[in-house]
Design brief:
The structure is a single chain. It is built from one helix and five strands. By secondary structure, the protein is α+β, with helices and mostly antiparallel strands. It has a single domain, classed as Alpha-Beta Plaits (2-Layer Sandwich), CATH 3.30.70.20. Strands 4-1-5 form a three-stranded antiparallel beta sheet, with helices on one face. It has a two-stranded antiparallel sheet with strand order 2-3. The protein is globular. The two termini are about 15 Å apart. The model has no long low-confidence stretch (mean pLDDT about 90). It comes from Halorientalis persicus. This is Ferredoxin. It holds the Pfam family Fer4_15.
């Protein structure tokens, strides 16, 4: 199963509830959340939206991280969903 995690940095408040639910989320130097697999070719703006696709069995972790985000900065969609 392929799914996509989208992280809206403009909405992120750096509360980091996502970090304890899915270890793919990280605390970046700018005080906002980051996610494993995001482009590493330079600094990412705090207003950027980061989208990363995964093909693993950790969908439940991603969904828990999204549900825990109090500002709804994280969304998870399965491939084929619109």
């Amino acid at each position: 199963m392929t799914y996509t995690i989208t992280l809206d940095r403009a909405a992120c408040d750096g509360i980091f509830a996502c970090l304890v639910r899915d270890d793919r989320f990280t605390e970046r130097e700018d005080g906002l959340a980051g996610i494993e697999g995001e482009a590493a070719d330079g600094p990412v703006s705090e207003t950027a939206t980061v989208t990363v696709s995964f093909d693993d069995d950790r969908l439940a972790d991603a969904e828990q991280a999204a549900a825990a985000c109090p500002v709804d900065a994280i969304s998870v969609t399965e491939e084929g969903e619109s």
